[in-house]
Give the backbone structure.
Amino acid sequence: MVEKTYSQKIARMFEIVDYILLPPASFGLFLAVFMVGVSPLIPLLLYAFAGVGFVLLAGYFKHSRGRLADKYVSALWLATAVYNSVLFLPCLYWASTLLQTDTFLDYEGKVDSFGVMLFTFVLGTVFGYLTAIVFALRAFSFERRKKFI
């Protein structure tokens, strides 16, 4: 058995994380059906974005098992970095907005535990997306270096 490359190991990690996030994403896509009455553009964008996510998941599946053609590996990692950047930037903006408002204080000026939990969740999401971007770019870098060696 041939040892997996760094890129294949990262693809397997992304695949596992995608399987974990699949049920909440499916629930969100189900709820998007009810938003058609508000604006048909919002569910269409959500389904298009989810479609790209499913294509990336298929790419991770193939690459982690060594069945993805070498010419598509770089595109997989660059698409992953861009895909996660699209989600990273709004979360980063939301975290900065929470920091600039009185989210951590209730109406009496005391520390509000809900505001702290909300900020912790948003900050965790920001770091999750940042981690995904860094790992994707590292895998891309290792794949490019592998071609020159």
Notes: Helices lie at 6-32, 41-64, 70-100, 113-148. The chain is about 80% helix and 0% strand. Residues 113-148 form the longest helix (36 residues). The radius of gyration is 19 Å.
